[in-house]
Amino acid sequence: MDKPFTGGCACGAIRYSIAGEPLFANHCQCRDCQRESGTGHGSYATFARAGVNVTGRAKTWDMVGDSGNVKTRAFCPECGVAVYMTFKAMPDIFTIRAASLDEPARYKPQVVTYAARAYDWDHLDSSLTKFETMPPS
């Protein structure tokens, strides 16, 4: 069995363990991710929900993405760190913030999404495929 992906918030109140490899890994430059991260993009790894185990209670807030679908962002109510996202339209997936991983070097981005909203000062790996918005599923 492969080594699980583990991580959580800065204070340890929220922890996760995920069996399996990411289905998708991206840097997102949409305005929502910029606001949440406080920089030019958010970095995410998305997994099958079936392999996810979360301990601790997150505070959540919902927002509507460009697709019109609701995404729920979860953060630690103690330290404030953003940890994961879920999507009402896609209940079988679970997305974590790459920086929340215990071993962030395991994160391997595949693409850049919402490149149309990139800032000149937010330089990402130029070898990654860039999509103007979200690529088709």
Query: Remind me, CATH topology?
Result: Metal Binding Protein, Guanine Nucleotide Exchange Factor, Chain A
- Along the chain, the helix and strand elements come as EEEHEEEEEEEE
What amount of the residues lies in strands?
Answer: 35-45%
Largest beta-sheet characterization: 8 strands, mixed
Backbone CA Rg: 14 Å
Q: Using the coordinates above, name the CATH class.
A: Mainly Beta
CATH architecture classification name: Beta Complex
Shape: globular
Helix content: under 10%
Instruction: Enumerate the strands of the largest sheet in spatial order, edge to edge or round the barrel.
Output: 6-7-8-9-4-3-10-11
Counted beta strands: 11
- Tell me the span between the first and last alpha carbons: 28 Å
Indicate the mean pLDDT.
Answer: 94
Structural class: mainly beta
Number of domains: 1
The residue ranges in which pLDDT falls below 50 over 5 or more consecutive positions are none
Keywords: Lyase, Metal-binding, Zinc
InterPro entries: CENP-V/GFA, Mss4-like_sf
Domain CENP-V/GFA: 5-120
Protein name: GFA family protein
